[in-house]
Design goal:
Elements (H helix, E strand, L loop, with lengths): L1 E7 L2 E2 L8 E8 L2 E9 L6 H9 L4 E3 L5 H9 L3 E3 L6 H10 L28 E2 L2 E2 L2
Parallel strand pairs: 1-5, 5-6
Antiparallel strand pairs: 1-2, 1-3, 3-4, 7-8
Length: 133
Amino acid sequence: MRIAVTYENGQIFQHFGHTAQFKIYDVANGEIVRAEVVDTNGSGHGALAGFLMQLGVDALICGGIGGGAQMALAEVGIRLFGGVSGDADAAVNALIAGNLGYNPDVHCNHHDHKHGEGEHSCGSHGCGNHGCH
């Protein structure tokens, strides 16, 4: 199994479409056997699903994520574990152990309204059950 986590400084990055890096974990027999950090090279939102598919990812752990990105992940067969925050390594170990707390109905509600100037600040609103950072 291959698991991707939106990643920044050891933590789960809280906005899928703006993540600059993923930490990719290879799991075999219930253990992490390899992990590496990969740059997204500027890919954003919908393009990230294809990026993860090309890397052979089976599951994604992230914070907030919009509906379009959720649909793109579903279309390429990547299981989503959203609404997660904290240490990336700990989240992957929790997923492997079958006790990861996540929100199956996670969404980033900034996709539903305008912040002006075309860009938004994740610090000014809530995404799912947590604040974006």
